[in-house]
Amino acid sequence: MATTRLISMHQNKGKSIADCLADRTDYAKNPSKTNDGELIRSFECDPKTIQGEFLLAKRQYSDITGRQQENDVIAYQIRQSFKPDEISPELANKIGYELGMSFTKGNHAFIVATHIDKAHIHNHIIFNSTSLDCTKKFRDFLGSGKAVRKISDRLCLENSLSIIENPKRGKNHYGKWLGDKKPLSHSEKLRQIIDEVLTRKPADFTVFLEEMKLAGFEIKQGNNISFKGENQKKFIRLRSLGNGYSEDEIKAIISGEKAPINKKNHHQTPPSRVNLLVDIQAKLQAGKGAGYEQWAKIFNLKQMAQTINFLTENKLLAYEDLEKKSLNATDNFNRLSTEIKAAEKRMAEIAILKAHIINYAKTREVYTAYRKAGYSKKFYEEHAADLLLHKASKATFDELGLKKLSTVKSLQAEYAELLSKKKQAYGIYHAAKKEMQEVLTAKANIDRLLQSEPPVKENEKAPNQR
């Protein structure tokens, strides 16, 4: 379960863009909050040189477009806060990266810093307001906060985390639940009025139309009957309202040939899943009372029934088959997980290396001029961003022991191939995870049941066992 908030990061008065970026990114990268930097990931930038890379992109934006920055927004931040004790720092960092990729659509460089210094693990996702191709700026749009929340909720559900069902909008800090109360659409309002009119049991379809006119709707008849209510710009056809609202279906409801739609029962109950049995004795020793004991016994009976149903449906009634299935399911999940992690690691390496190669090429002439200027302090101050990027790129190449640099084209090809493999793996990853969890839960329940059976004494054995 995670709350989200999208924040515009402004240039403070009296401070340069470089200083403001440094303040925000340095706070996010704080080693004491990110486990000495282990919980920091990035896309199309190096966390060590993010300030210079963001500045260079903004300068190139001005050179390419001829436009100057119209407002004081220099970057954007997504704060994503998780429910305490529900997620590991590593998974939170992974989800934060996926949220950043999904929301920016891979068009903006960003870093993800996962903070673990508070009870609630939370992410700081900072992305450049300038696009990677330096031709556009990100514009905060109406409903952008809701878009972030929807992506975050989807990622939480995919990773078996809970979500808030009815988030509330407010001006609280990012650890509070945010969201919007969605107003009814014109189509939904029309459905509600139709349902209300039908409850009055009009004598025929003509009377029904008259009731709709009295309710404030303008009616257009022809091949398709359409309605237009107050503040509607266009007519809405009956057939566009979905099941139960066509002209023939409404006539059938009026004549009694068909029952009205029961909206109270339109939510289907999700299929039951196998849960672990409750350790009743441990709970009683922890202070639970007789009421809890009674509930736990009923709960365990239901879960054993669910377990037997699961084993029967999957033909795992022999313990040897269940044990083999649990091992295979675990091995399959671990293999997919390893493949995805390896691909993600290499993709991150490629992204950083590609950024350094591009930065090195772009800043080579500036560094050459700096050297010819005798390493002038004035020259350095005028070209600080370029020189910082150049030095950082050279240091990275030396650290990796690269004598010959790969081409950006070859790195892009390798990245695309890894991304394709990762997507294929993800397609079966969640199904494999669910299968493993179900099988291991069923096996754990059976193991507990077998351990709880009292051993058979020698004098209690049947005659044919002696």
Low-confidence stretches: 170-182, 264-270, 460-466
What does the overall shape look like?
extended
- Strand share of the residues? 5-15%
What proportion of the residues is helical, as a percent range? Answer: 40-55%
Spell out the helices and strands N to C.
EHEHEHEEHHHEEEHHHHHHH
Tally the beta strands: 8
- Overall average residue pLDDT: 82
Rg from C-alpha positions? 31 Å
Q: What class would the helix/strand composition place it in?
A: alpha+beta
The N- and C-terminal alpha carbons lie at a distance of 58 Å
User: Major beta sheet, specifics?
Assistant: 5 strands, antiparallel
Spatially, the strands of the biggest sheet line up as 1-3-5-4-2
Annotation field: number of helices: 13
Domain MobA/VirD2-like nuclease: 27-161
Pfam families: Relaxase
InterPro entries: Endonuclease_MobA/VirD2 (IPR005094)
Protein name: Relaxase/mobilization nuclease domain-containing protein
